[in-house]
């Protein structure tokens, strides 16, 4: 149980994301039957999250943390590190094993969480902020 990682194409083999760093990835999420439920590639917008902040499901974070820069991998996440017995109603069934095709585009050093002038982040429910990977 947990996450299984199968390399599709290797990365640099030496640059791995660390706790507190922001990862930038492209991914496609599928059920075991091959039905796609989410994709940053379809939105043509890479997805960002911080390692160690529980911003995404555990299997996705644990798998990505073991990938090196530029690597593309298939992550198979058992229900205990995905959405468990609850699932995500209407999208992901209860006790579903999820499969992600993930490419680690970059990982950045941690930055202090300081507000910078500029546009506000997308509001909850805004398509730019939505991803099934998050715990909201």
Automatic annotation (TrEMBL):
InterPro entries: FKBP-type_PPIase, PPIase_dom_sf, PPIase_FKBP_dom. It is found in: Cytoplasm. It comes from Sarcophilus harrisii. It catalyses: [protein]-peptidylproline (omega=180) = [protein]-peptidylproline (omega=0). PROSITE patterns: FKBP_PPIASE. Its EC number is 5.2.1.8. This is peptidylprolyl isomerase. Residues 20-108 form the PPIase FKBP-type domain. One of its GO terms (biological process) is negative regulation of release of sequestered calcium ion into cytosol. Residues 110-136 are annotated as: Disordered. One of its GO terms (cellular component) is sarcoplasmic reticulum membrane. The keyword Nucleotide-binding does not apply. GO terms for molecular function: calcium channel inhibitor activity; FK506 binding; peptidyl-prolyl cis-trans isomerase activity; signaling receptor binding; transmembrane transporter binding. Keywords: Cytoplasm, Isomerase, Rotamase. Belongs to the FKBP-type PPIase family. FKBP1 subfamily.
């Amino acid at each position: 149980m947990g996450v299984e990682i199968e390399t599709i194409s290797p990365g640099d083999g030496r640059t791995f994301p660390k706790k507190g760093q922001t990862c930038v990835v492209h991914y496609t999420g599928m059920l075991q039957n091959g039905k796609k439920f989410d994709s940053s590639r379809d939105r043509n917008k890479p997805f960002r999250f911080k390692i160690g902040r529980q911003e995404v499901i555990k299997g996705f974070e644990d798998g990505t943390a073991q990938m090196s820069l530029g690597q593309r991998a298939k992550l198979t996440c058992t229900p205990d590190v995905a959405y468990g017995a609850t699932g995500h109603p209407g999208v992901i069934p209860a006790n579903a094993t999820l499969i992600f095709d993930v490419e680690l585009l970059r990982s950045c050093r941690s930055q202090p969480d300081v507000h910078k002038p500029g546009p506000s982040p997308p509001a909850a429910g805004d398509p730019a902020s939505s991803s099934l990977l998050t715990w909201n």
